[in-house]
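Page 42, continued from yesterday. The earlier attempt failed because a stray header line got pasted into the input along with the sequence. Redoing it now with the clean sequence only.
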Amino acid sequence: MNNRIPPPVIALMCGLIIYFSRALFPKYVFTLTNLISILFLVLGLFTLVSAVLSFKAFKTTVNPLRPEKASHLVTSGIFKISRNPMYFAMLLVLLSITIKFNIIGGATMSLAFVFFITTFQIIPEEIAMKKLFGGEFDRYKKRTRRWI
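This time it went through. Structure tokens are written below.
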């Protein structure tokens, strides 16, 4: 793995940067800011819990730093929609923070999160999944998008 920092820690750092850099950017507030922010947060948490429960149901690892320990390729449930629902869930939470506190800085940081996680986490995980599951992973990859 190219990444030794757990993705939830990366997401937390990005969220803190979004929040604490809000004074550097103009504040934009619109009528439904709070509602939309809460919807993104709830959707993100629902997606994250769904993904973790799917992994638990198949008794496979949720440790993103050890993808080679996976015992099963999970392709059902939320994994029919996204190959990486946990990272997508983290992005939704970041977008929730972005909408609430810092549209410009948050959008920039959210894009940085997507780039970083794709480059240093998802691509190495995909290499490990290909080694472990071969053609089964290739078929899954063809029918299911990386993010959404």
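Notes: The chain has a mean pLDDT of 94.
Reminder to self: strip header lines before submitting.
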